[in-house]
Write a structure and sequence with these properties.
Length: 281
């Protein structure tokens, strides 16, 4: 229960971050970078009775209903929760803090926040296997019933939505939206990689026992040990393989150099570690 509470607290925080970025920076500037929010921004001028926030709510709820009808209990509860919270919070912000115009007269500054806040929020959600729904639900349906390349299909739809901004809100808003789409596509992957970034150590040493003892008892991590042999002098050595977070990596590097100044240490960045103590466990 404690782990679930922490997970859903993170989902709530990340979803509210997306909502704030969308409502305060995307909506008033007409920045459409794809997805349900982009569709809502484009449709709002043609349906004056409904605000962008209301359209987000209606579209997301409709897609969630379709998702549950098609997938049943297999539909992701975390995605359902995040999608509902995002739709409700965006709609609520329109009622509580109505905006008649952008917060500033600096569209580039607002574009940075319009892209950064939702991108960070989305990355946090993706990292716990959740999302704010919308076009992700469409992707799940397409994946089940077609052989389309889902990534390419979603990217093409985002491009089409973004380019349409030029015709609805003018070339200036359209160009900002295109720039925002490019920034978003790079930023989400970058944030996910940095969240999961670990350090993979390969240590060739003659003082393996001391280093392994430090890894297991001081850093509380596991390690794998292999027998090795020097290529020039053929002296026996040990090769230690271990993965640590960034803070632990600093301590191990300092300790290994202190215990064995002649140790050969290779440190590699990795954001995809699957196993006990890391992702998938």
């Amino acid at each position: 229960m404690k782990a679930k509470f922490k997970e859903y607290s993170l989902i709530t925080f990340a979803t509210l971050m997306v909502s704030v970025g969308v409502y305060f920076f995307k909506f008033p500037n007409h920045f459409s970078t794809g997805g349900v929010t982009g569709i809502s921004i484009l449709l709002a001028p043609f349906i004056p009775a409904l605000s962008p926030g209301a359209l987000v709510f209606i579209i997301n709820m409709g897609l969630l209903l379709v998702g549950f009808l098609i997938f049943g209990r297999g539909f992701g509860l975390k995605t359902a929760y995040a999608s509902t919270l995002m739709s409700v919070s965006t709609w609520a912000l329109e009622k509580i803090l109505p905006l008649e115009q952008p917060l500033t007269d600096e569209p580039l500054l607002e574009l940075m926040f319009a892209v950064t806040l939702p991108a960070i929020g989305s990355a946090l959600l993706f990292n716990v296997n959740a999302s704010t729904g919308g076009t992700d639900v469409v992707a799940m349906i397409l994946k089940k019933y077609t052989n389309l390349n889902i990534g390419h299909a979603l990217f093409c739809s985002d491009v089409l939505i973004t380019v349409s901004t030029c015709f609805v809100f003018g070339i200036k808003a359209g160009l900002y939206s295109i720039l925002g789409l490019l920034m978003k596509s790079m930023l989400v992957d970058s944030v996910i990689e940095n969240i999961n970034l670990c350090k993979y150590f390969t240590i060739v040493t003659v003082k393996a026992d001391e280093i392994i003892d430090y890894i297991t008892h001081e850093l509380h991590r596991g390690a794998t040990v292999q027998d090795g042999e020097g290529a020039f002098h053929h002296e026996p050595k040990k090769v230690i393989l271990t993965v640590l977070n960034r803070t632990q990596a600093v301590h191990l590097r300092q300790f290994a150099r202190k215990v064995d100044p002649h140790a050969f240490i290779m440190i590699t960045n990795s954001s995809e570690i699957i196993g006990k103590g890391f992702r998938g466990q």
